[in-house]
Amino acid sequence: MKRLMNAVETMLDESLDGFAAAHADIVELGAERKFVRRRTLTPGKVALISGGGSGHEPLHAGFVGLGMLDAACPGQVFTSPTPDQMVAAIEAVDTGAGALLIVKNYEGDVMNFEMAGELAAAGDRRVESVVTNDDVAVPNSTWSTGRRGVAGTLVVEKILGAAAEQSMGLEDLRDLGRQVNARTRSFGIALAPCTVPAAGKPTFELGPNEMEIGVGIHGEPGRRRSKLSSADAIAEEMLSAILSDLAAPASSECLLLVNGFGGTPLMELYLMVNAARRILAGRGLAVTRYLTGSLVTSLDMAGCSLTVTLLDVRLTRLWDAPVRTAALSW
Amino acid sequence: MKRLMNAVETMLDESLDGFAAAHADIVELGAERKFVRRRTLTPGKVALISGGGSGHEPLHAGFVGLGMLDAACPGQVFTSPTPDQMVAAIEAVDTGAGALLIVKNYEGDVMNFEMAGELAAAGDRRVESVVTNDDVAVPNSTWSTGRRGVAGTLVVEKILGAAAEQSMGLEDLRDLGRQVNARTRSFGIALAPCTVPAAGKPTFELGPNEMEIGVGIHGEPGRRRSKLSSADAIAEEMLSAILSDLAAPASSECLLLVNGFGGTPLMELYLMVNAARRILAGRGLAVTRYLTGSLVTSLDMAGCSLTVTLLDVRLTRLWDAPVRTAALSW
């Protein structure tokens, strides 16, 4: 494994320092680098806070800023942040309207965010949470009871971010978040594994002509190992799983997120966009919004995920609302 | 080599179709996919056109839009586009104020853009060009006489794009482009090679603990092969080469672009931001603008480049001016 680093122990801290310097117009680091927060808060707005293991950049710190998150707590690579980090973030960015925690469904994350919420609530803060579980690949997984939360999490973060800017209250945001999660499904495949710096060896092995169907964003096993097939066949399998679970009404409009896991060139991601949009059109779904890029990554894993979110007029407007973060801006 | 594709022959076309669909609010494809152009042109504005081999995405098509390019011509992977493509692009987006061609210094690109410029000029169009050659690693290279044009090209495209929106004329834009290029230097290193789909094998070989110092964006050889060293030592070597060539006046302000080659996680790129900014500060250079991401890539090559552009008040304002493209937006 080759990494641009000085030492495994300082890698995250150094990366956070670089991130904070590069985006000092938008974010600042909390004390002891416990969280990344917006430089400027909006008093009276519900605070949106997420977080999780590092190694998925730009998720989540790259989504802190106007129209999206107020703070993000970075854990060590593929490791949940601590309740201590989350409580510090809540205290830093909750201006009185309460805090909504957006949590990917992994046992460590769920447990720690729950504990943080209870601690903050004991301190008289109003805290609610949304747990994302958009990954249809497997019903349970290495680190999750129930489905995993993956790339669809950023869709929840974007839509809630817009609604929060428009003064939506805490409980309504929580309900909207659960609704967006319920309208969102994802499915990932890997062509090559990732390597966690502290481990120094790949998280799994793949033969020269194999792929992992239904892989998780930490390289967790999916449904099966298979021979590498064509982009069209891969997109077909991914979308079949997504659509059979989503049960979209006829003539639905949707958002298509084609997400790279880190090691896959953008040229291939756009090729997958093309494959997916034709398949979706054939199933009667109109893709009215697109997002393409390596946004919810697994270090240097090669592969991608597809995410479909059913839109309506309100969700489309919230998706289109202005956003100004390190990784998403429009 | 594993690729998300259906066939090598159709890969570029399918990817362009996906790109055009995903960004239909900003761009459209020219006939026979000869170029990607802005959907909406500004009459009387000088047209900025670039292009080059594919495999460097998001460069250049990802930089087409308000505040940057008017058109980009995609060649096959690592292969220059043809004069025919460039002439078609000029005819499509020159609204009468002339066309400025922004060309990376590779023999094929320079020759074809020159031919296209002559053909367009014979058709009574005003055409000027700027050739970028920001890579200080080697004086000549596999496909270039003189220095290679690499990631600094996007800095030229951004600054000229802003100036063109502000109604700067053709000759002034050409001169400004050459000035920005002269104030810009880059240096790249690779930790792992890329694989051209049609070739099916890596462009070069690296040992398990080796890196290529001064690599080009097609995997061309650099200065030397070396043992992998720390991020700080790598950044020091890269910036020493850049700064000794740039001869920056004391207390200069600069833009720092940390560019990933495709296979390197964002976490490592931000770690390099941190290393580079400390070294630059130690040399008396204040980094006042940052850009970080995999923006001028070499398919799935692992590694990164550093680019430094000396800023002044005018260039900083042009850098900050609004941009709305698939890959850059602020």
Could you describe the 3D structure shown?
The structure is a homodimer of 330-residue chains. By secondary structure, chain A is an alpha/beta fold. Chain A has 2 domains: 8-182, Dihydroxyacetone kinase, domain 1 (Rossmann fold, 3-Layer(aba) Sandwich); 184-314, Dihydroxyacetone kinase, domain 2 (Hypothetical Protein Tm841, Chain: A,domain 3). Chain A contains 8 helices and 14 strands. In chain A, the strands form 3 sheets. A 6-stranded mixed beta sheet of chain A has the order 1-2-5-3-6-7, with helices on both faces. In chain A, helix 2 packs across helix 3 and helix 6 (231-246) crosses helix 7 (266-282). Chain A is globular, with a radius of gyration of 19 Å. The model of chain A has no long low-confidence stretch (mean pLDDT 97).
Q: Beta-strand level of the residues of chain A, as a percent range?
A: 15-25%
The third-level CATH topology of the largest domain in chain A is Rossmann fold
N-to-C order of helices and strands of chain A? HEEEEEHEHEHHEEEHEHEEHE
Instruction: Please list the strands of the largest sheet of chain A in the order they lie side by side.
Output: 1-2-5-3-6-7
Percent of residues in helices of chain A comes to 25-40%
CATH top-level class of the largest domain in chain A = Alpha Beta
CATH architectural category of the largest domain in chain A: 3-Layer(aba) Sandwich
* Number of strand elements of chain A: 14
Supply Rg of chain A.
19 Å
